[in-house]
């Protein structure tokens, strides 16, 4: 079976790529969602949850920025695309930096200084929803077998590719 570059990346260098490119970003983002819910639910009585939310927002944005930078410099330039689903998976994954980066910038006080608490919460939720959408698009299209979208491998490519084994 031929896999997309997204899946090749996650499958290479087990378990490290899976941990670095999937587990850590997902745990940070989902923890951020959870603390956002608790902060909203306890409405003003959630200083502890709010502090965690603040730290997680910065950590998620900074970590994912480093991941995206690494991928753009070391992986993306060498990719041999396997059709549109492969491209969509990688681009959607990389676009995750937009919402997570925006959250980190808000938490560091670079943007959103003028927002009320309610506006900040709404923007946070909107950005988190945006991240969940692009990350799920990346996961779904990353799991697609590239040949069902019309991509045809060269005969030598039918065997498991090892072009990402160095990561």
Automatic annotation (TrEMBL):
Transmembrane spans: 16-35, 56-76, 88-105, 125-144
* UniProtKB keywords: Membrane, Transmembrane, Transmembrane helix
Keyword Membrane listed: yes
Top-level taxon in the UniProt lineage = Bacteria
InterPro entries for the chain: DUF6803
Q: What is this protein called?
A: Permease
Upper classification of the source organism reads: Bacteria, Bacillati, Bacillota, Negativicutes, Acidaminococcales
